[in-house]
Amino acid sequence: MAKIFVITYSTYGHINTLAESIVKGLEKGGVDVSRYQIAETLSEDVLEKMHAPPKTDIPIITTDDLLKADGFLFGFPTRFGSLPAQVKAFFDSTGGVWKDKALVGKPAGFFYSTGSQHGGQEATVFSTMPFLAHHGIVYVPLGYTSPHLLDNSELVGGSAWGAGTMANGDGSRQPTEKELAIAETQGEGFAKIAKKLAA
């Protein structure tokens, strides 16, 4: 059975909420799923000033852990239209597995959260493409596989690049049912492709 890691960095919990639906979709797609989180680099003092809740007890991912998976779905919030420094620091630590070409051909996808509708959801994913290209990782986008992505009757996060949500600047908006459904669709679709690549 293909083994997929869902790897998140979540400051206020929105990404972890989306991840639950991603996992549900992956399991429907018939793959083995493990959850990891990216290590925090901010001090407790800074996190307290940000009113960030305590981190979950999800295991911290290491570069060696990446070798055990057949594919990855990464979830994280945007920071000024790009990936957070914590995620960049993790990607920057993968030089050893890059040297060994250990991730070539493995699939990866992304899901994300922004503070506002125009906070850079697609740009955030776009900023990760060099990491995938240098490792030879196969990018698997969501595409327009969910009808909710074409729904203009209300605010709906996500795009062809991956599932997403808007948190508001103060974190008060939570993922909606439609956004969670999009995340589940992404997980299920990713599982099908990952199984083919792992076969």
UniProtKB/TrEMBL annotation:
InterPro entries in the cross-refs: Flavodoxin/NO_synth, Flavoprotein-like_sf, Flavoprotein_WrbA-like, FMN_Rdtase-like_dom
Domain Flavodoxin-like span(s) in chain numbering: 4-190
Pfam family, one: FMN_red
One GO molecular-function entry: FMN binding
TM stretches of this protein: none
Domain of life from the UniProt record: Eukaryota
GO CC term, one of those recorded: membrane
Gene3D superfamilies: 3.40.50.360
Family to which this protein belongs: Belongs to the WrbA family.
Protein name from the UniProt record: Flavodoxin-like domain-containing protein
Species assigned in the record: Coemansia guatemalensis
